[in-house]
Amino acid sequence: MSTSHYIIRGGIEGRERLRLLARVMQPTTLQLLERAGVTEGMAWLDVGCGGGDVTLDFARVVGPTGRAVGTDIDDTKLGMARTEAADRGFSNAEFQLVDAGNSEIEGEFDIVYSRFLLTHLPDPSPALSRMYAALRPGGVLIIEDIDFTGSFCYPENVAYNRYVTLHSESVLKRGGDPNIGPRLPGMLAAAGCEYIQMNVVQPSGLTGEAKLVTPLTMENIADAAVDENLAEKTEIKALVSTLYGLARDTITVMAIRRIVQAWGLRSQAAF
Known about the structure:
This protein is α/β, with parallel strands linked by helices. The protein has helices at residues 11-35, 53-62, 75-87, 124-133, 158-173, 184-191, 213-220, 222-227, 233-248; strands spanning 43-47, 67-72, 93-97, 109-115, 135-147, 153-154, 194-201, 204-205, 253-255, 258-265. The protein is 41% helix and 22% strand.
């Protein structure tokens, strides 16, 4: 399985960033699940689940009569997810090693969900089609993904702007789309979804963990930025230091990238 198109570190280092990001995103993602009609007893698939934070949220929402399956290409993160699920007593959660960009999805689900995956794929349409195919008739396909054009820091800051540029250019160099968010409704329609809806969220603040997402992400994309000859290690070290300073500064407003939430239904089976 190839991870060459991903710009963010995997393994244990990447896991800690995902853990923080999951806490920041949890309120808006849980609101999204409510809007999309997620209820107890459903079968749920989380594609590109990382360390499984969202998968375990789903396991709690669908309850013991439901099923939550998380898939990812990072076996280290999956191992940590399995341990955490066992430690927290989630018998209805399971994790599988699957390359969403190249592999068929086994099973049939009421909900198929993916967050921050499609942005990294050189050609996300086949993966989205496989997600759609894994839905039961009447099931819901839910996607959350990014739009870096909506990133902001106030007062405007050179280091923050440089981070946005490095992240966007690193994704583009690997064949992804850092601004895929607004494309999602059209992509869902092309995959076959009906009754498509969307929403936009953007965690931000003067204090709190939302501000830490930016410096942590800069640390985790450092290897990709250097490998793609976009920046030197010395520059990245200085950027990370400045961004942590902004995160501690209670006057500066800092937001993570804009996030588009989009969801649609698979049509009911014809009678």
